[in-house]
Amino acid sequence: MKKMLSLLLVGLMAVSMTGCGKSSSNEDRTLIIGSEKFSQAFLNSEALGNSAYDKNVRDMIYGYETYAVNSNGEFQLNETAIKKVDTKEEKVGDVTNKTYTFTLNDGLKFSDGSEVTADDYLFHIMIAASPEFKENGDSTGEYLYGYADYHNGKSKNFKGLKKIDDKTFSLTIDGTLLPYFWETSFVAVRPDSMKTLAGKDAKLESSDDGVSFVGDMGAAVTKWTTDEMKNPSVSSGPYKFVSYENGQVKLEINENFAGDPRGDKPSIKNIVLKEINSSTDMDTLIKGEIDILNDAIEGDKIQKGLEEKKLQSVNFDRNGYGTFAYKCNFGPTKEAEVRRALNFIIDKDELVKNVTGGYGTTLNSEYSTAQWVYTKAKSDLEKSLKYNYAFSLDKANEQLDQSSYRFEKDGKTPFDAEKAAKGEKDYYRYNSKGEILQINHLGTENNAVTDNLELMLTQNAPKVGIKFTLTRTDFDGLMQNYYFDTQLKESEKIYHTFNLGSNYSDAPDPYYASFSSDYVNTTANAYRIADKKLDALMQDLRHTVATDRDGFLKKWIAYEQYYNELLPMAPLYANTYYCFADKDLEGFAPNSFQSIYQTISALSWK
User: Fold this and answer.
1) Whole domain around residue 345: which residue ranges?
2) Which of 295, 334, 463, 557 shows the greatest Cβ crowding within 10 Å of its Cβ?
3) Three-state DSSP class for 543?
4) Sign of CA dihedral 49, 291, 313, 597
């Protein structure tokens, strides 16, 4: 299971809404879920981009995970899939490894009726960690014993994996990575049908040296990342993939699904996820053309929905935030002083008011208001942060005067903040090389956050000597420049900042949240930040004993303090999600840690 902490959401939010194809009875009523444009990364991995919209599909077509997150954000054994789990520690040299042995329940089947076996769990790890898939940056299995030798092609055996029988397998955590605060996430894995991806003749061989794959892994990876990525043919979740055509993902009920971690089985027969324009979603809901508006954050939409008597609503703290993201590897945003200055010239209080209608709060570091650590340490944390990023042109100038961009155009004369404040035309900052302080921003179309940032930064940036440009694009254009900029030519890398949104994954480990230098040139580090002190703080944080919550809290505060200074990405606001649904829909109860897509099996029509 890949645990990228940050789930990329384009623009204001992960727009999600559902609707109905009207029929004579609710039994046959289709649920239509609105979405931004899909990237079609529907494979059981986050390595090829972690679009929230693609993940919503994945959460409905893949299941039977060994461990799942409950409504409190805690990992629990999935007793629907797992009959029992045993743990054992074993010393190998000076290191103590830990082995989890899982026994599957009877009756687990894929959507094609084939049996789910130990091979399918082990194969998912084998293909995701394989040398053939290496360039995609998937972290699956890297915490298991023997990963490096297998991943780097030095051994055909993955020593930390073992098949005991068709119903039983074990995963051994590399003791050098223990303790780990979210330990069970290391062995949280979902199956992939080995026969579908690798062919009927493929098999796994297990011995004391681990598990090896017999077959053509290269061909399996090619199939996984092409045909099966865009059109998954076999499902392990509550729904199975039918098609993606004309901007619509069609799903139908998986009759062979044994149940989700709560024991629920789906009852709604057909679901359509349709690419829509989010600007009219609430009106469409009220007209009865759709059934659910999920994760609404704009104040006017929320108020309109609350006043509508035929709707039900649920609200909760978002386990994520809206962001102003930087590229830290080129141009002016390589410098922390520039990044901090940009954060100071965004009036976040005004942004929260304009965008969320007051249903949100500003942030000064990288956290979610839904997290237990923030709830417990809120007061101490805010007092300990070096920077309070309230709007301030003076503080922005202070930062920029400490950057390399502290000169006039000749690269020698000190920049005069008073001239800029008075509006002197084309008076910008330069470095000693004569390079202008220009920030090129990329945002998405039809986006309230983009609109507000354009107004603020177009007005405020010149007052501190920054030349600011803003370009709008569609979802694909933003993905190409944000996630896949390493594939661009140097002359094509022109955007320094982006407005996005991020939601935390199940294990909120910053190492997997685009901040680790280990992933600096992959999609798992889209900010392109490489900082040794940040790396050390993240490692100290994550390698805390799972039961030591007080120790973890102290380390978390230290991490947040340094993050507040380094600022590889500026969290702008946290907000309350409001979800609205037709009153005829039962089981509608998304929460901070479980989306409507993860609890889709609980939904039914009256």
Assistant:
1) 320-401+441-448+473-573
2) 295
3) coil
4) negative
